[in-house]
Structure formats: C-alpha cells, structure tokens
Amino acid sequence: MGIPVASAVNTHEFTALGVSGEVVVTTQLGGSQDLVTLSLDDPLQMEVVSSRIDFANAQVTEVAITEFTPDDSIFRLDVTDTQNRTVVPSESDREESKVELLEGEFKHFEVIKGEEHYMIEACAGTGVVQITYMGMEVTLPIEVSPGMDDPICD
Asked: Does residue 22 form part of some domain?
C-alpha cells in the first residue's frame, strides 16, 4: 500500500502576460517565495558560464567567460534581470537558442545542445562564435590548437 498523495490546498493561479511585477507567496508554515514576471521591455543580461572539468581531481569549476578556450567546451547560458535575479527560460527560449560559428575555419566544428548545457566539439582553428538566446546576442572569440588526440580531429 502506497502513501496517499495529498491534494492541493489554497491553490492560486497568477497570470501576468507582458507585465512586470512581483508577488510574494507565503505558506501556512511561514515559508515564502518571490515570483517575478518581466515584460519584453525589461533589460536582461546574459553570461556564458563554462563548466571546466578537472578529470584528475574529479571536480567541475564554473567560470564566466568572454572567450572560448579548449577548457570551455561545455557551457551554459545564465540570464539575469537588472536586480541580478535568475531568469528562467521558457521551452521555446531554449529551443530557439543558437550557437553558431560566425566566422573562422576549423578542421571540425559542431555544437551539441543538451537540456541545460551546450558542448562545442572543435579541432584546429580560430574564429568567432555567435550566441543568440532570449532575444540577446553575444559574440566570443574561439581558438582551438591543433594536435588533439580525438578521432574527430583526424
């Protein structure tokens, strides 16, 4: 016999299409959560955050980057509002995002889009990557040295 699932209590629905605002929801037990909505006119900021993996020590370091190096092949895009609150993208924001080689030449260049992260596979080249996300665009230089021991680079 399983544990019965409790039904929702005091449910409320908030709709704020195209309007900026903030609502604080409090619970009967004293907890609270801020819900913030943004309009299309609210300025946003995007940061490219690399997940640098140290395999020898089994550690991942998160670093904001302004250029891609070979250590920056896995990254995510963080968006905040003017008060530095994280903006959660919609499914369509994620689907419509683009990471593409704007200029340059590589022996191999491919972008793989995961659920929350992106991965660039690149061999031997330099160029500029353009990222389009949530109505914003950013360009970052990329440089990958030749001589990698990866079969895609042969």
From this structure: no
